[in-house]
């Protein structure tokens, strides 16, 4: 899974487009999906069924776009937030 996520992120950064495999898209949280839709509304990306295309405007925030597809990053942020809330 990590290798697949890595390849998708590299494709987005280097080629400005990537096919998102079902194994990744099925595991995206509601928050990640919402953020991607907002990015599409803002003209940073365009999406088809299983592909993301990054616009020139979107290349300025490519790290933010890629972070929405990083499943480990999202998992770690959730754990961190829960820990902080309990204290």
Number of helices: 6
Oligomer category: single chain
N-to-C SSE series? HEHHEEHHH
Largest sheet entry: 3 strands, antiparallel
- What is the CATH C-level name? Mainly Alpha
Rough shape?
Answer: globular
Structural class per helix/strand content? Answer: mainly alpha
CATH architecture: Orthogonal Bundle
Average pLDDT taken over every residue: 86
How many domains would you count in the coordinates? 1
Distance between the termini: 33 Å
* Tally of DSSP β-strands: 3
The gyration radius over C-alpha positions equals 13 Å
Q: What share of the residues lie within helices?
A: 55-70%
Ranges with pLDDT <50 over ≥5 residues? none
Strand order of the largest sheet: 1-3-2
CATH topology: Arc Repressor Mutant, subunit A
Q: What proportion strand?
A: 5-15%
Quick summary:
With 87 residues, the protein is mainly alpha-helical.
3D architecture notes:
With 87 residues, this protein is mainly alpha-helical. It has one domain (2-86): Arc Repressor Mutant, subunit A, CATH 1.10.10. It has six helices and three strands. It has helices at residues 2-15, 22-25, 30-41, 56-59, 62-67, 71-86; strands at 17-19, 45-47, 51-54. The chain has a three-stranded antiparallel beta sheet with strand order 1-3-2. It is globular.
